[in-house]
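Format notes (please read before filing issues)

Several people have asked whether sequences and structure tokens are stored in separate files. They are not. Every record keeps both together, in the order shown below: the sequence lines, then the token lines. Line labels are part of the format and must not be stripped during preprocessing.
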Amino acid sequence: MRFRNLAINLGAIAILGAITLSLQLPKLNQRLSGQTQEETRKAVRDEEARLKLVKQLPPRGFGFNNLIANFAFLQFLQYFGDDIARNNFQTGYSLSPLYFANIIDRDPRFLSSYIYMSASVSMFAGAPSKAIEIYSKGLKSLDPDRQPSAYIVWRYKATDQLLFLGDAKGARESYLKAAEWADKASLSDEKLVEAHKISAELSRQSAQWLEGDRDLTKAQIGAWSLVLQNATDKKTVQIIAQELDKLNLKIEIKNGAQTIVAK
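Then the structure lines:
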């Protein structure tokens, strides 16, 4: 039995090692040969395929889920920080949701990762619906009694529901859950009692503000305008155009600048 477990663990390490090597080689070759647009676009396609491969690993990840999540997060930081590939070569940030789907699937209690997801998936990739889906999945594994700061995930979810989707009801429910969890945090986390109490109160105030019949159109326009400012690839611009169409707005290009105007 001991030898069989050893063989299984060694096999798992070998698989993870192969994935790690496959993730690193394209970037190493790219650094050695210089970044070109064609190579960069191919690297993005290869990276997408590898991220989908990682997602197909068994749910328990051979007992290495934390390792897989940590490695995926490091890879995301390298991806997100490559301004030449994202901006100059206009490959955009469309892989961000895939990175965080893998990270949260493997380690939903990795609270620090949610902070990066909030900006990269919703703001830079223009995919708030995917971000909300990932938040919802992660929240199922979070416990305010064990992770006192977990209420921040409810707040991030509420923000995306409010600003991007104009979902007042969903945002209000998320803010109320954030307040509930922050209250629990203030009882269990002596070091940050005041901070948790402030977060609970702010969340309740936000939920109360949403009780009325609020027109969130201006908030949505403001949010999508920020996404448009950060958009460097056609795919993201198309997503923005589709969302603006729902608001009876469109993107107008004038003197090389993209602006949002009424139809």
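For reference, the curators noted about this record: The beta strands are 249-254, 257-262. Residues 2-33 form the longest helix (32 residues).
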